[in-house]
Amino acid sequence: MAYITPVNGDVQPVFALDVQNGPVAASASTAATPVQPAGPKLDFFRAVANTTVVSQQGVQEYVANVINAIQQTATIAMYQVDGTVLSFATYPTGAFANATTNTSAAVFLAAANITYTGYQLDSCTSVGFKLST
Fold first, then answer.
1. Which end of the chain has the least Cβ crowding within 10 Å, N or C?
2. Going by CATH, does the domain composed of 43-125 fall within 3.40.720?
């Protein structure tokens, strides 16, 4: 089988969308350098509602209105509804951060907790995305 010896290029990342410091030198270490060629870096939030919201996923129902409220501040890359748990991945990162106290979950909860009869978000964490079971 034929083989061509490469004369240029290296094994450094081709994309470094989360790092805006220019190209990475071939001699530099890429340890602790995030590379996300699939899209932007995401923040993850998990909110728990007071009751199941599975039946509220239609047009202009509770879940749609929560999504619209969140997207006033950030873009939702993906979301998951599983019983009382709503999980969201948003960008840009830090959109819900409170710079003075770094309480992004509380800021997210305040933005997402809309007024809707019989439904509300009771708590929120920024620890990850809950996949359905």
1. N
2. no
